Amino acid sequence: MAKFSLSSLSLPPPLSPPLLLERRALSRSFTVQSSHSSPVCSRSEPKVVVTRERGKNAKLVHALAKRGINCLELPLIEHTKLPDLDQLPSVLSAESAFDWIVITSPEAGLVFLDAWKAAGTPNVKVGVVGAGTASIFEEVAESSNGYIDVAFAPSKATGMVLASELPKHGNVKCRVLYPASAKASTEIEEGLSNRGFQVTRLNTYTTVSVHHVDQTILKQALSAPVVAVASPSAIRAWVNLISDEHWGNSVACIGGTTASAAKRLGLRNVYFPENPGLDGWLDSILEALRVHDQFQKGAM
Fold it and tell me: What 3-state class would DSSP assign to 32?
């Protein structure tokens, strides 16, 4: 049986901070890329467009469905493996090589788990960026015998805070393995290196925009009040979908990094929680819908 430990993990308590709203002018149009809608999402008057890869929107969709909110699945990005991934199993096979494995997104966690199984499920100690990433390790296959000790999460779910708070024992040079997206910033390895950690980064995957879109689904997506996005790559993909139509509805981002990318690209009505994660993301979506409904009533 695979073992999953949260005994030493100090996750911050759920937060409900004030939602932050940024409004900027937008006069752009669309040409989208994506595929068909998921069976779990309703095609009837969708209120929210969910944009993660197919199969990875279920938790958000179900949380919205409990509140009577229909959604439409329109994947904006897909993940592709990179050559560094081939090295990861052999690197993990040397169990004592690293003091920490740092995982900063659910996708990085899924990629890591595949390599961990290929390496023979060695015992490892993991630091995660937040509760959403930690939850990935609850789904470790039952057939393995290894031990994943999820031993750390920062006080705020960002890479910068993780790099400043990851425990380091005395003056010993702690060794960190950081399997990441090629598009992830360098703030984690730089922050840890500045504190005296020895960091090995492997770019195990990257994200690319999807290549095709169902135009009927696109038309529905453009009319939905809120588009929910979970990464800067998804924001860039959404903006690249624009051609010859003005779009001024709301974007609900999973956290501040994604929101900053949205604002840099000129999107308006950008909502995001102070602390990244599914609960805050859901609150941001609900706030965006509430403001939209108020505006609609006022316009009557």
Answer: coil
Q: At what angle do helices 84-93 and 106-118 cross, to 10 degrees?
A: 60
Amino acid found at 26? L
pTM of the model: 0.71
pLDDT for 143-170, tens place per residue? 456 688 999 999 988 899 999 999 997 6
The structure tokens 């690249």 sit at: 240
Residues 243 and 222: their CA atoms lie apart, in Å, by 12
Burial of 207 (C-beta count, 10 Å sphere; 0-12/13-18/19+): buried
Q: Element (H or E) spanning 223, and its range?
A: helix 215-223
**Residue-range domains of the chain with CATH:** 48-76+210-299 (3.40.50.10090), 80-208 (3.40.50.10090)
Outline where DSSP puts E strands in the chain.
Answer: 3-5, 20-22, 48-50, 71-73, 77-81, 100-103, 124-128, 147-152, 175-181, 198-209, 226-229, 250-253, 270-272
pLDDT tens digits along 28-87? 222 223 333 343 454 468 999 999 988 889 999 999 999 999 999 999 998 899 999 999
d(CA 25, CA 71): 26
